[in-house]
Specification:
mainly alpha, about 0% strand, 14 helices, single chain
């Protein structure tokens, strides 16, 4: 019985592969481009839908066939899957979608691989941590939930990659955040996030440098206490006392 089921499964897979191969040949013969096929296969304008949908492999296989038959004669026509996604959906949407998708076991490995390629491309094109901050529009996020956003976490992951492979290009993430967010709300958001085991890296990346900045600026406990009181009522849980104790 098991052997019979295996044969049936193999037959179905082979039949589907043959059907897909015929479809790819038909598209090529009709002069279709990867842009045409993506527009044909996508059901809406969201990258997430296509990433998790049934046609990802079909598009990938078409691009391979297209490059082998068309771009090989004219290298200017060569297309990459990532390049097509960025062209269609934009850098910001692709990066944020991939960051979220890494939490979905069904596409986790795929999302990590594509994100790695995307970040490597950005770094290779000369983008620095401060540039990616703007690409991802981190500044448009609310400070209270900043550290849970795909924009912030994708930015951190890009910075980690740059620091790992090109430590000479390292930049101060705290200084970048302070161009957008006020010190006190940011300090409170950092303190609250630091209590989350998943976000513990934020403590060393941001909280310690912030405390060091306060020391250099001559902030006393008394002065800091007064500053922390100003917006204490806008926080559901105000972490001012924890900040003072740790400072």
């Amino acid at each position: 019985m098991q052997n019979w089921l295996t044969q049936i499964t193999h037959f179905k897979i082979t039949k589907r592969e043959n059907s897909d191969n015929k479809q790819l040949r038909d598209w090529l013969q009709a002069g279709q481009t990867p842009d045409d096929i993506l527009n044909l296969l996508k059901v809406d304008d969201e990258f997430e839908t296509f990433l998790k949908g049934p046609h990802y492999d079909l598009l990938s296989n078409f691009i391979t066939k297209y490059n082998n038959h068309v771009a090989i004669k004219d290298p200017k026509k060569e297309v990459t899957l990532l390049g097509l996604f960025v062209k269609t959906y934009g850098d910001e949407a692709v990066a944020k979608t991939l960051e979220v998708a890494k939490g979905d076991p069904s596409v986790e490995q795929l999302a990590m691989r594509i994100q790695g390629d995307l970040f490597a491309g950005w770094a290779g094109n000369g983008l620095a941590t401060r540039d990616v901050y703007n690409v991802l529009k981190v500044k448009d996020e609310g400070v209270k939930n900043l550290f849970a956003t795909p924009a912030f976490n994708a930015w951190v992951n890009f910075d980690d990659m740059v620091n790992h492979y090109s430590p000479e290009r390292a930049e101060n993430m705290l200084n970048q955040l302070l161009t957008t967010f006020d010190e006190i709300p940011l300090a409170k958001a950092i303190e609250l996030a630091s209590k989350d085991d998943v976000a513990n890296a934020i403590v060393t990346k941001l909280q310690h440098p912030l405390f060091e900045k306060w020391v250099r600026d001559g902030q006393t406990i008394e002065t800091l206490s007064k500053r922390l009181k100003f917006d204490r009522y806008v926080w559901e849980v105000d972490p001012s006392m924890d900040i003072l104790r740790e400072y």
